[in-house]
Design a protein that fits this description.
It is a single chain. The chain is of the alpha/beta class and about 290 residues long. It folds into 2 domains: about 10-110, Response regulator (Rossmann fold), CATH 3.40.50.2300; about 125-280, Rossmann fold (3-Layer(aba) Sandwich), CATH 3.40.50. Helix content is about 45%, strand content about 15%. The protein is built from 10 helices and 10 strands. It has helices spanning about 25-35, 55-65, 80-90, 100-110, 125-140, 165-175, 195, 210-225, 235-255, 265-280, and strands at about 5, 10, 15-20, 40-50, 70-75, 95-100, 155-160, 180-185, 205-210, 260. The strands form 3 sheets. The chain has a 4-stranded parallel sheet with strand order 4-3-5-6, sandwiched between helices. Helix 6 (about 165-175) packs across helix 10 (about 265-280) and helix 8 (about 210-225) packs across helix 9. It is globular and about 70 Å long.
């Protein structure tokens, strides 16, 4: 529970959090952020230690924990390393959390199978890995209106006015193996011919829009960061309202699905696009078959 000072304000407490992984640590990083975000008045100093696979590596980390004790979250499959880490945390009286154990245990019981206990197995260089690399290369080559001659080769094309999160959304999609391109709508500039070359029912084109008020705020912050002039049509509210309205009319004429990103995170926008893509390609998850008696 968060504390409060004499003025009724939430007081912030600081903690150390150690993330120890025998792989890249991506899983740990995501899980720790999701968990810590649930606590008000808590701020953590995270220290991530990836690719920990030897006793010598772990002993150096344990020296850090001993010097500044804090909670530990880990994904280690080596039993010797797990035992050493657990014993040290017990001696220091700090939590030591094997984050994947409950999941692997429950699935093992359900599958009636034993886990492989192989470090970094989720990052094996399989076909999916190479598909993601190919998608990332495509996306970077087709960012912000580049290489518009072959937009029909994309899985998804995002269209929207400036600062509607097109690029980060495309990168997120590419990391999921989706070849994503994006095209910016600029007042007075015609659409690239590559968009017209997309056959009906072919590549999915999605329009991104947002609130004019929010867009002005984002654009103004962008100009300030660049030390650029801040009194232009780019951040004029009435001009931005016209941009947004013109973009919506374009999306309607073209029959493109529209996603309002005003209150969506990149992940939420990408999830909505993936759902549209799956329906378009017929890969949407179907209900599971009935269990056999």
């Amino acid at each position: 529970m968060a504390g409060f000072d004499l003025d009724g304000q939430v007081t912030v407490r600081h903690f150390h959090l150690y993330l120890i992984s025998d792989a890249t640590g991506e899983t740990l990083n995501a899980m720790s952020k999701a968990a810590v975000s649930q606590f008000e008045g808590v701020e953590v100093v995270e220290r991530l230690y990836p690719l920990v696979r030897t006793r010598k590596q772990l002993e150096r980390i344990l020296a850090d924990i001993t010097q500044a004790p804090g909670a530990v979250m880990f994904t280690l499959v080596n039993h010797e390393l797990r035992d050493l880490l657990t014993e040290t945390c017990l001696r220091l009286n700090v939590p030591c959390i094997p984050v994947l154990d409950p999941i692997i245990g429950a699935l093992g019981s359900f599958f009636d199978a034993k886990a492989r206990n192989q470090p970094g197995r989720q990052h094996a260089l399989d076909a999916g890995y190479f598909r993601r690399i190919e998608a990332m290369n495509f996306t970077m080559a087709h960012d912000d209106g580049q290489s518009t001659h072959d937009l029909s080769a994309a899985d998804v094309v995002l269209v929207g006015i400036s600062r509607t999160s097109k690029t980060p959304t495309c990168i997120y999609l590419a990391n999921r193996g989706i070849k994503a391109a994006n095209v910016a709508l600029v007042p007075g500039v015609p659409l690239p011919a590559g968009l017209d070359a997309i056959a009906p029912g072919g590549t999915l084109v999605v329009g991104l829009t947002t609130s004019p008020d929010r867009l002005v705020q984002i654009r103004r912050n962008r100009l300030l960061a660049l030390n650029a002039q801040t009194e232009t049509d780019y951040v004029d509210l009435e001009a931005v309202k016209r941009e947004v309205a013109d973009a919506r009319r374009l999306f309607l004429r073209r029959g493109w699905p529209v996603i309002d990103v005003t209150r969506r995170s990149i992940e939420e926008t990408a999830a909505a696009i993936l759902s549209l893509h799956d329906r378009r390609t017929g890969t949407e998850a179907s209900p599971p078959p009935p269990l056999l008696a």
